[in-house]
Write a structure and sequence with these properties.
By secondary structure, the protein is an alpha/beta fold. It folds into 3 domains: 82 residues, Winged helix-like DNA-binding domain superfamily/Winged helix DNA-binding domain (Arc Repressor Mutant, subunit A, Orthogonal Bundle), CATH 1.10.10; 99 residues, D-Maltodextrin-Binding Protein, domain 2; 93 residues, 3-Layer(aba) Sandwich (D-Maltodextrin-Binding Protein, domain 2), CATH 3.40.190. It is 36% helix and 23% strand. The chain is built from 8 helices and 13 strands. The chain is elongated and about 80 Å long.
Length: 283
């Protein structure tokens, strides 16, 4: 016999209510049905889950281990059902680090005005697809070349590159930095989703690289003065903080901003979102 969700719901109802009688009332079934369901669960697991007398119930060691896991499982199932039944009433937009930068808030406000029936949810997922390949979103904003075999893609704009350094770095007193000068520094970048690689210096010496997988860790290391970073302008507007300075990087190629979405069965609001994002970048 397989364990079913109804088994777990009945077990939690008994534990939460404190008795079979009250659990039956909460579930809208008979007390006998509650007893049978618990018995079938214990039979499937081949172990007792509750010690029960005429007055009290208590979890066995196995029951005590099962209950919190059952709660998590049922909560995840409720979330899955909510996502499935919400259908197209919600648009999930994924991104790896900096969403739309200076346009993020404007995008959220205009979307709410123009599409009040479709909730907009921004999701930061540090993967090359911005969470799209993982099923975390309906479309994603990326700044690295996507897998065009599986995703449709459109380029919506270009962003300048900035160098990021500690606020007390000698370069922080300058207005701009040349790309060639960075060869002497250690550059911290995200190899999975970052836009900075040794390819920026096609000839001659290249800077030393260190890896990271999180924007907060990246900023903390830069603020400590041991490394610098190179990033699109969107990061400069999305993550300004004390102890870190952003300066334009001269002679560096711009970063393409792309929106990607599934080739099969895209969200109905995809083209509206792409059009609005492209309009913001054109402005």
């Amino acid at each position: 016999m397989d364990v079913e969700l109804r088994h777990l719901k009945t077990l939690l109802a008994i534990v939460d209510a404190g008795s079979f009688t009250d659990a039956a009332i909460d579930l809208g079934v008979s007390q006998a049905a509650v007893s049978r369901t618990l018995a079938s669960l214990e039979q499937a697991l081949k172990t007792r889950l509750l010690h029960r007398t005429s007055r009290t119930i208590a979890l066995t060691p196995t029951g005590a281990q099962l209950v919190p896991r059952a709660r998590r499982l049922l909560a995840e199932m409720d979330e899955l059902i909510d996502e499935a039944t919400s259908g197209h009433a919600r648009l999930r937009v994924g991104h790896a680090w900096s969403a739309l930068g200076r346009y993020t808030a404007t995008f959220q406000r205009r979307w709410a005005e123009q599409h009040p029936d479709v909730d907009l949810l921004l999701i930061r997922t540090n993967t090359p697809s911005g969470g799209l390949a993982e099923g975390a979103c309906d479309l994603a904003i990326v700044r690295t070349p996507p897998d065009e075999k599986h995703f449709a893609v459109t380029e919506v704009g270009l962003e300048r590159r900035f160098i990021v350094m500690a606020a007390d770095d000698p370069w922080a007193r300058r207005r701009t930095i040349r790309l060639d000068e960075v060869r002497t520094r250690t550059v911290m970048s995200d190899r999975r989703t970052g836009t900075t690689s040794a390819d920026l210096w096609p000839t001659g010496d290249q800077p030393r690289f260190e890896g990271t997988a999180d924007v907060d860790d990246w900023l903390a290391r830069i603020a400590a003065g041991t490394v610098v970073g190179i990033t699109p302008e969107s990061t400069a507007t999305q993550y300004r903080r004390a102890g870190v300075t952003f300066r334009p990087l001269r002679d560096a190629p711009p970063v393409a901003v792309r929106v990607i979405w599934p080739r099969q069965d895209p969200h109905p609001a995809t083209q509206d979102a792409v059009a609005l994002i492209a309009e913001l970048y054109r402005s």
